[in-house]
Design a protein that fits this description.
The structure is a single chain. The chain has 196 residues and is mostly helical. It has one domain. The chain has 9 helices and no strands. The longest helix is centred in the first third of the chain and has 37 residues.
Length: 196
C-alpha cells in the first residue's frame, strides 16, 4: 500500500513537472513572439541567424547540469513557426548542439562520480542497468527521456569512451527534438493567438 502511494506521488510529481516546464516553454515562445512584434522585427529576414541562435541556446541548455533549462524548445518552435525555418534543419542543428552540450555532463560524471552522482538518486540503478545491459541502446533510450539529461553523467561515470556515448546520443536527440517540434507546432496551432 505504501509503495503504491509512493509510485502514485512520483507520477503526480512528474506530471506536474511536465506541465510546469511546458508552460514555461510556451510562455517564453509567446514572449519571443511579442518582442518580435513590439520591436517590428521582420521574422522572415531573421531566418538565417535563427539557426545560429538555435545552435547556441540548445548547446548552453544541454550543457547545464541538473538545471531544467527549457528555453531551447521555445527557440526551436520560434524559429520554425515565426522565422519559417525548415523543421528538419532546425532539429538537425538542435540535435548536434544538444549532443555536444552533453559533453559537459559526460566529463562531470567522468571526473567526479561521487560528487555528481549519488547512488541514492531516483532511477540511478535502472539507468545504469539499461546502459550496462544494452550498451549503446541503453544510452539511446536514456537520451530519449524528455525530462532528464542524465545520459552524459552516467556514461562518464561508467568511464565509457566519449565516442561510444556520442554516437547513440545524437539520433536520440534528433528523434526527441523532432517529436517535440512537430507536436509542439501542432499544439501552438490549436492555441488561441496571443492578444498583441
Amino acid at each position: 500500500m505504501v509503495m503504491e502511494r509512493l509510485k502514485q506521488n512520483r507520477w503526480l510529481k512528474m506530471a506536474l513537472y511536465i506541465v510546469i516546464l511546458s508552460g514555461v516553454s510556451y510562455g517564453f515562445y509567446f514572449l519571443l513572439q511579442y518582442l518580435t512584434t513590439y520591436f517590428d522585427i521582420p521574422a522572415e529576414g531573421f531566418a538565417p541567424i535563427a539557426y545560429l541562435i538555435v545552435f547556441g541556446v540548445t548547446l548552453v541548455a544541454n550543457a547545464a547540469i541538473f538545471v531544467p533549462v527549457v528555453f531551447h524548445i521555445s527557440i526551436m518552435l520560434w524559429a520554425i513557426e515565426q522565422c519559417n525555418c525548415n523543421l528538419i534543419l532546425v532539429v538537425l542543428v538542435a540535435s548536434v548542439a544538444g549532443t555536444l552540450g552533453e559533453i559537459t555532463g559526460y566529463y562531470a560524471g567522468y571526473l567526479g562520480k561521487r560528487i555528481v552522482l549519488a547512488e541514492s538518486t531516483p532511477g540511478y540503478d535502472r539507468f545504469v542497468g539499461w546502459m550496462q545491459r544494452y550498451g549503446p541502446w541503453g544510452i539511446f533510450l536514456v537520451s530519449l527521456q524528455p525530462l532528464t539529461d542524465i545520459a552524459g553523467l552516467l556514461a562518464g561515470a561508467s568511464k565509457l569512451p566519449l565516442w561510444k556515448f556520442l554516437l547513440p546520443c545524437w539520433p536520440a536527440k534528433f528523434i526527441k527534438y523532432f517529436v517535440i517540434c512537430y507536436f509542439g507546432g501542432e499544439i501552438l496551432n490549436l492555441l488561441p493567438p496571443f492578444p498583441f
